[in-house]
Amino acid sequence: MAHLLAGKTAVITGGTTGIGRAIALSFISHGANVTVNHLDLPSDAPHLASLLSEAEALRASDPQAGVLSHLPGDVRDPKTSTELVSFAVAQGGTGRLDVCVSNAGICTFAEFLDMDGDLFANTVRTNLDGAFYFVQAAARQMARGQSPPGGSIIGMSSISALVGGARQTHYTPTKAGITSLMQSTACALGGYGIRCNALLPGTIRTQLNDEDLKDEKKRAYMEGRIPLGRTGVPKDMAGPAVFLACDELSGYVTGAQLLVDGGLYVNLQ
After folding, report:
1. Could you read off the pLDDT of 177-224 as tens digits, one per residue?
2. What Gene3D superfamilies does the record tag this protein with (predicted)?
3. Which residues are catalytic?
4. pTM of the full predicted structure?
5. Which residues contact 132 (CB under 8 A, 6 or more apart)?
6. Measured at the alpha carbon of residue 184, what is the angle toward residues 180 and 185, in degrees to the nearest 5?
C-alpha cells in the first residue's frame, strides 16, 4: 500500500479506544510516527496494551509502518497539551509536528431538566476547553517551533454539532464549538501553512454510545434512517482522517467540515 504519511509525526488525544484508536492505527500503517494520549486509568490498561500490540504487529508486517508511543495526561489541564506536543515531537525524531487530532471527549446522556452543573462543566472542560488547549499547543509548535511552519489540525466534532439531541444538551454545544474552533483557527493559522478542519462523525459505535445502542429498537430505528443501512464503526473515520492529514490529498482544504455519517444528516431533513 502507499504510505501517505511516511515520515510524518502525529499526535492524537484520546487515542487508545474508539475513533482515536482507529485513526492511530491507520496513521501508523501509512508510515506516521504516532503519539497517543490517555488518562492512565486502570480501565485504560487493557486498551493500551492491545493497541501497542496491534501497532507492533503492523510494524512487523511492514517495516515502513510508523512507531507508536503514548503519554498519560488529562486534557482539561493546559500543561498536559504542552507536554504532549513536546513529547510527540521528541518521539517523532524529525523536530516537527505534522498532524494533530483533537479527539478526546466524553458524552454521558442526561435529561436536561435534571442535569446538575458538574456534568455540564466537566463535559465542556473535557470536550471544548481540552480541545482549545491542545490545538493551541500544537499550533504553537507548527507555527513557531519548526521551519518551515505548517501542519494539519483535525478537530473531532460530530453530526451533533448540526442537529439537536434531547439528552445531549450539554454535549452538542461542545461539538458545535469544535467546528467553530476549526473555522476560526483556519483563519488564524492559514498564514503559517497550517490547515484546520473538522471531522463530523455520525452514529459511530464506540464506548461512548455502546450502552445506548444496546437498545434493539433504537438501533433498528437509527439504522433505518441511515441511507447506507448501518451504524458506523471507528474504522470508518480512519480514511477521512488520513485524507485531511495528507498534504498531497487535501493540501487546499482548510476550514472545512467533513461529515462521515452514512448519509444520516441529509435523511434527517
Report:
1. 999 999 999 999 999 999 999 999 999 987 766 666 677 777 788 788
2. NAD(P)-binding Rossmann-like Domain
3. 157, 171, 175
4. 0.95
5. 181
6. 115
